[in-house]
What does this fold into?
Amino acid sequence: MTDPSARTLRLLSLLQARRYWPGPDLAGRLGVSVRTLRRDVDRLRELGYPVSASRGVDGGYALAPGAALPPLVLDDDEAVALAVGLQAAAAGPVAGMAETSVRALAKLVQVMPARLRRRVDALRAMTVPAGWGPTSTDDAVDPAVLTAVALACRDTERTVFGYTPPGRERSERTVEPHRLVALGRRWYLVGWDLDRGDWRVFRLDRLDAPRGTGAVFGPRRFPAEDAAAYVRERIGSAWTRFVVEAVVAAPAGRVRERIGRWAAVTDDGDGGCRVRIEADDLDWAALALGVTGAPFTVLSPPEMGPHLRDLAARYTAAGAALS
It folds into this structure.
């Protein structure tokens, strides 16, 4: 390999694929001398990649942890796996992960060749997600829509899309996208609607065929400090979020194994733990606490008390019918 730039990328890919490379082996894979390999390693260091070297007969090279995350070089299978994983994380219940996953997914999809995007779409289409809670396809968001809108927000590009509000016909909307907001199990776009001359909130599961116009817009004065708070205010009672806190009489590790993906679990001492669950409805929180398999005491919210009593009465009646 004679082109220095291509060889440098190949060297980076090899260093990221294996923890340690003996110098002669690495030089052989690149088809260069050991002296040329040293120059290529120095070039990587100049670019900010922390490559450590060990001298001697068995000397070699390794990519060491640095102060910041450098760009990664991924092969095809790794890129597809990362995209599918980010899509799953974007729809997952881990607080704060959805928005971050979408940003990362948008960066990846932007540079991903069409053949790999087709593989990602095929994997997603043929994969059934395993999880708890409602999974209606009626409000599912196409990852392609999600990433397209995320890129439009990042690039401040005017975007055209179809939108179908409940009980109304589909219409074409031209919008200056501002922010994506994840609330509960739904995604919302906040943007300036050019046709209506006002800020609007759009549910992404009702949005289709987003496409950029190529026109870049300047910043507008947003009517709120926080996009998420703005969405909550606009949709009002259409979105209710409960924060359920409880003490569970079981070790944090055991509880975390059972519901850690859907709740925050912290050690409370004396063999118990505290659980915090953010949910769209109280049924889901009650189910999560029930599968801990241990006694629990709910601290908040007060609505949880009557809800648990109602559930207990229904279960008791069901049990009595079998006796």
Q: What stands out?
A: Residues 304-322 form the longest helix (19 residues). The chain has a mean pLDDT of 82. The chain is about 40% helix and 25% strand. The first strand starts at residue 21 and ends at 22.
